[in-house]
Amino acid sequence: MATTATHMATLKKANAPTPGDSYVQSFARGLQVIRSFSERAPRQTLSEVAAATGLTRAGARRILLTLQTLGYVQSDGKLFALTPRILDLGFAYLSSMPIWNRAEPVMEALVQQVQESCSAAVLDDTDIVYVLRVPTHKIMRISLGIGSRLPAWCTSMGRLLLADLDDEALRTRLQASSIAPLTRHTLTDIDTLIAKVQQARRQRWCLVNQELEEGLISIAAPIVDRGGRMVAALNISGQANRTSAKVMQETMLPALMGAAQEISMLL
Q: What is the pTM of this model?
């Protein structure tokens, strides 16, 4: 794991952009500050923001005060927190892709049919980002919603989306991921993960059995554009004690594939 972490740090450093005519460093630092807030750190002091972003206190302070002036951050004088206005940034992406408004009824119909939660996600670097979710039961300890991130390497949607990369790019992406055992079922060997992604590429669907969270099974199908390029993935998630992997594959995969094809046609 130390080798993977070192490689990831080296890769990120090598790929890090440098200030210039096409790169505005102050804007990038502002985004760093926004991303430093999370479920684990919803409210932070100036020192905590500076430590989380690697900025100086003075630099972090200027950015926080700018965001506060614009209404994206609020402060009680000591602690800073994001405001609901920050959702405008994510909504800009979703509203620029009306496909998700049209996909929601398809996903709702699928949930009614299979009685399991359904989600759609896109690939962003080493993560998947949820763009739509229709839940039934709460099946995960993690609270998921639009904008939530999960690692691509150990999720059904992530492995399927990684399958759209060529093998060289896939290996590079996996080497840049923070791979660690999350349950007793988690696969962590990169060659094994590559084989799983290649299998997903061949069969055009992917099932992950209790690798992300104990008891959680999910199966994913591709959403493709007119050119056949995978732009998103659709999945069904359920509990192993209620639905086995075999049953999910045999009884739910056809409905999932049909819903994914229907959404693909909307593109």
A: 0.70
